[in-house]
Amino acid sequence: MRRRCPRPSPNRARPPEGDPVAKAIVGVGANLGDAIAQVRAGLAAVGALPGTRLVATSSLYRTAPVGYANQPDFMNAAALVETSLPPRALLSELQAIEARFGRSRSFKDAPRSLDLDLLLYDDLAIDEPGLVVPHPRLHERAFALAPVVELDPERVIPGRGPAREWLARCADQRVERLGP
Fold it and tell me: Is CB count within 10 Å lower at the N or C end of the chain?
């Protein structure tokens, strides 16, 4: 079910009146340059998307790389947004932000200047070419699950179950909460 967004503060972008509003969670990560500054700037850029209001951001987390291990640790966080953008348009906007931040996809799990992942979009399950929601590996990755559970402790991953239960299964993955 889609909900209308409450009256936002005047300093926040908000969806146009009358448009359907969805809640989405976007994962944000970086491990190149000043990764903390990159993540914070990425969160701000997500909140500035058209038809989108930043509702909350998680703490910052320092996490070990997954996949290609010979790289610096990541800084990760997540943004909870309300948006009138449909899922594919939101993903396209996120990829445009990554490009502005110099994201290069030189090989799988390569270091990143900024990584934005559409983790969840309402309670939808979407599996189309170029768009899979929930993110296909969300349930396997503590670096994504920890911020999701912080933002919404009762969150259920469509088709998988409670996010907190999946986070407990990832206890062997190093995730250090750094704070706001």
Answer: N
